Amino acid sequence: MNLKKQLLVMAALILLVFSAQAFSQTNASISGSVTDESGGALPGASVTVTNNATGVASKVLTNSAGVFNVPGLPGGTYKISAEMTGFQTQVKTDLSLVAPSVLRVNFTMKIAARNELIEVSAKAENLLLESSSSVGVVLPEEKLTELPLVSSNVLDLIKVMGGVNMTDSPTFGADRTTFAGISAANVNLQRDGVTVNDVRWGTGLSSPVYLNPELIGEFKLVIAPVDAEMGRGSGQVQVITRSGANDFHGSAVWNIQNTALDANQWYQNLTNVATNWRNQEEYTLSAGGPIIKNKTFFFASWDQQIVKIREHNINPQILTKCAQKGIFRWFYGYQSSNYQQVAATPATGSRSSPWTVKSVDAQGNPVSPGNVPAYMTGDPLVGTPAPLEAASVFGPLAAGKTVAMLGN
Fold first, then answer.
1. Residue 364, pLDDT score
2. What is the pLDDT of residues 236-282, one digit of tens each?
3. Contact call for residues 54 and 245 (beta carbons, < 8 A)
4. Nearest of 133, 140, 62, 61 to residue 99 by alpha carbon
5. How far apart are CA 197 and CA 236, in angstroms?
6. Residue 26 and residue 21: Cα distance in Å, rounded?
7. Which tens digit of pLDDT belongs to each residue from 29-84?
8. CB 326 within 8 A of CB 392
9. How many of the other CB atoms lie within 10 Å of CB of 206?
10. SS3 state at 18
11. CA 100 to CA 26: how far, in whole Å?
12. Looking at the chain, which terminus has fewer C-beta neighbours within 10 angstroms, N or C?
């Protein structure tokens, strides 16, 4: 492959990397109408929608009915203006657009004697009407960074949203969590329009992709009904990845959780039992800005989590000294088990399926289960103390060696 072809391949790969988010991005749109004071349509009016953060502008003309539509807009704050020869130019600012909604903005143009500009804060007048029939909550980028999160996972924000019921269950693996009465198992989790549910769990609240607040630009919870363009699920959690803007921004976050900083639990105060030691540190670095102002942008995020745990009162199960030598013991008429075995039920057991009993204590000393059980019908030892027996994987025991002499 010559140098020219290599450069073309590299350029194509770079283009795919930078455009991957654009292909999967969940976008919104703005539509509306432009009329004169009498309500008559103004075809050919120029409508410009500008993203405040990136400076990217989209320009369209109204059709014969005076209607315009600007699709493919990422979430953010916008400014929209309408211009027509002979009419006052109107500008509406502070339009908060969340994906994947459709916002309707209408203009009523007044005849101008000279060049005039009327600027209105749409945020103050609450002029926007969302045309989606879905019911839910949207948290923009600034809210995601303001709300406290102990776990640094935006999925925990579900706990504070209306319509979500989490009865006696945590966020992840919560089989009793409901969204407006619908089980979380039927809720779809999407990132940039792509499903990222963790299929290992019967819940829509777990994702194999860690959703750090520094990475997310918008978080939307849809209770019902689900937006048709977003596909499956009786409810949905939609997250949008943050993108760069015309200004350079970055952050560095160090989140530490240590048992020394935790409040003691009531039961631990009562029993005076030491807690298991845990130290969890999370480092997050993010940066974004323009590559070509008003045209191309970048955003990068790096996140690392280091967890160290030390548990107290660990009781590992190991072979007794006797078993380590290849000698295994059991009580006649019983099936032997370790010291944690629950006591057998007297109503069960037979010759072919004997009771399973605890045959040793925590130190490996033999523990007698009692007499030979009655299901050993016809055996002369029934009702007498069950003898301890042994066998070696290396052959018969040495002459003169008894079970009692084997030790632990």
1. 82
2. 888 888 888 888 989 898 989 898 888 877 877 777 777 788 899 99
3. yes
4. 140
5. 11
6. 9
7. 888 899 998 888 899 999 999 988 888 889 999 998 899 999 888 878 889 999 98
8. yes
9. 19
10. helix
11. 6
12. N
User: How many H-runs (helices) and E-runs (strands) does the chain carry?
Assistant: 5, 25
Distance, CA of 339 to CA of 367 (rounded, Å): 9
Which residue, among 177, 211, 179, 164, has the nearest Cα to 192 in the 3D structure?
Answer: 211
Average model confidence (pLDDT) for the chain?
A: 78
> Which tokens hold the place of 85?
């020869």
The answer for residues whose C-beta is within 8 angstroms of residue 12's C-beta and 6 or more apart is none
Please tell me the predicted confidence (pLDDT) of residue 117: 66
- Provide the 8-state DSSP code for 229: G
Alpha-carbon span 283 to 177, nearest angstrom: 30
Cβ atoms < 10 Å from Cβ of 46: 16
Whose CA is closest to 28, among 165, 201, 229? Answer: 229
Question: Which residues, 6+ apart, have CB-to-CB distance to 163 below 8 Å?
Answer: 135, 136, 137, 179, 180, 221, 223
- The two three-digit tokens of residue 102, written as one number: 């459709």
> DSSP strand E in 311-350: where?
327-331, 335-337
Strands 28-36 and 102-104: parallel
What's the whole-number mean pLDDT along residues 305-316? 80
Helix (H) or strand (E) segment spanning residue 267: helix 266-271
Give the model's pLDDT for residue 6.
Answer: 60
Alpha-carbon gap, residue 247 to 164, rounded angstroms: 37
d(CA 304, CA 358): 45
125 vs 295 pLDDT, higher one: 295
Is the predicted pLDDT of residue 160 greater than 90, yes or no?
no
193 in Cβ contact with 26 (< 8 Å): yes
Q: What is the pLDDT of residue 59?
A: 92
Evaluated on CA atoms 52, 57, 61, 63, the torsion sign reads negative
Q: How far apart are CA 44 and CA 66, in angstroms?
A: 7
Handedness of CA 32, 194, 212, 215 (dihedral sign): negative
